[in-house]
Amino acid sequence: xxxxxxxxxxxxxxxxxxxxxxxxxxxxxxxxxxxxxxxxxxxxxxxxxxxxxxxxxxxxxxxxxxxxxxxxxxxxxxxxxxxxxxxxxxxxxxxxxxxxxxxxxxxxxxxxxxxxxxxxxxxxxxxxxxxxxxxxxxxxxxxxxxxxxxxxxxxxxxxxxxxxxxxxxxxxxxxxxxxxxxxxxxxxxxxxxxxxxxxxxxxxxxxxxxxxxxxxxxxxxxxxxxxxxxxxxxxxxxxxxxxxxxxxxxxxxxxxxxxxxxxxxxxxxxxxxxxxxxxxxxxxxxxxxxxxxxxxxxxxxxxxxxxxxxxxxxxxxxxxxxxxxxxxxxxxxxxxxxxxxxxxxxxxxxxxxxxxxxxxxxxxxxxxxxxxxxxxxxxxxxx
Length: 383
Fold this sequence. Notes:
Helix content is 25%, strand content 31%. By secondary structure, it is α+β, with helices and mostly antiparallel strands. It has two domains: 40-153 and 311-331, no CATH class; 157-307, no CATH class. Strands 1-6-5 form a three-stranded antiparallel sheet, with no helix packed on it. Strand 2 and strand 3 form a beta hairpin. Residues 289-308 and 373-383 have low confidence and may be disordered.
């Protein structure tokens, strides 16, 4: 039998002490019977499966992922988890599963791409829907791995994007002039992007953001105007400067098209002078689109969209999903206890990164070595 004196010692949370005679953990007998309020689980079940989530990689990112061999799964998260009792003992679990992957770029760094899928599963569990009982659902996703599931030739994408953005706009002079601008200068810009494929991605992102502005300039019933703000300036101006530098580096500014394109870019390098004004008004007042010569025609085979690298087109991620379903209710239970716990140990106060104590060396004076006082190293005659 255990020593009664040991039972009088304070009881702390943790494993039961090892009985020295028995060599096994032995907990002291409880001293009270208390009532506690808890959630009691009346039934539960679990379900595990692997979801294949296919991420369609942005068609412009694929142009600068030709060297990518492996991709990494960054995260898998479940949100908007919903538990619905359809009928007695029938439960439907729905949730959004978001998976993010990291794709290495030819230009260095990584591009993070995410995909969200809505998942719906139906299960049978006894006592679900019973009066007084609640159903709780918990979803725990784990990303197992991701892999490149498809590569493709990224071709004719700028043409398609321009066509989709402006095909429904009524024909007028501004629209024709814009298409003239695109058709006249896209072969020149294509030569730059072959050397700097990262600029293709920047061009796509800028064109995606500002295509509503161009639509508005063509016809005010479409798209919308934008105000010149700092966030616009820091994106547009550096991109234009990069294009200008590449044109000059390749001596393309010596050609009439290159010289005209640099002059056109120069109109946008001082956007900070127009901060707070309308971008549409700036374009119209400068008559940008009316400076382009030539007729509307089909896009040259040397234009931006006809670069055909084999890049990452699709990534598949395998995600393990654990679903727990519990049928519970809040109840009161009688349980044996040890009463209230003993006081916990004192918390160590954190006063800062510097130490609180300082013990200086004493005395804080130079050593007396070499002092004259009759020693051999006293005063000497100056010569």
